[in-house]
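Amino Acid Chain and Its Fold in Token Form
===========================================
Scope: a single protein chain, as residues and as a discrete description of its fold.
Amino acid sequence: labelled as such and written in the usual single-letter residue code.
Position: the record begins directly beneath this header, with no further notes in between.
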Amino acid sequence: MKEMIMKKTYRIKKEQDFQEIINARASFANRHLVLFIRDRKDGNHFRVGLSVGKKIGNAVMRNRVKRQLRVAVQELKPNLMQGMDLILIARPRITQLSTKEVIKNVRHVCSLAGVIIEEDDK
């Protein structure tokens, strides 16, 4: 899969944007992830911010988790509601998961938040 995982227009990078979304207080969680969401009035697509703190492990482990989260978002991209800002915060237990399990957990937390459009055949 050589295509770009997340284009710049799909990313949230600014600290101020992170703070505004977190302060909106709409959060959903499971054992491995916390998801903060905010509706955007002007957005015609979703944006995602990833936060993987130092409690997760060293730089190698944090980058591995970020890669897994990006793959999960790419997998779910067709099913995610448009016009939303999402912030995924990894919890330390996520390091024990495979990429498939990370995808499953991202799907779970997104369905809790109601930002995923589930297909009937799943």
Observations:
- The two ends are 23 Å apart (CA to CA).
- The beta strands are 27-29, 33-39, 47-51, 84-90.
- DSSP finds three helices and four strands in the chain.
- The helical segments are 15-23, 59-76, 99-113.
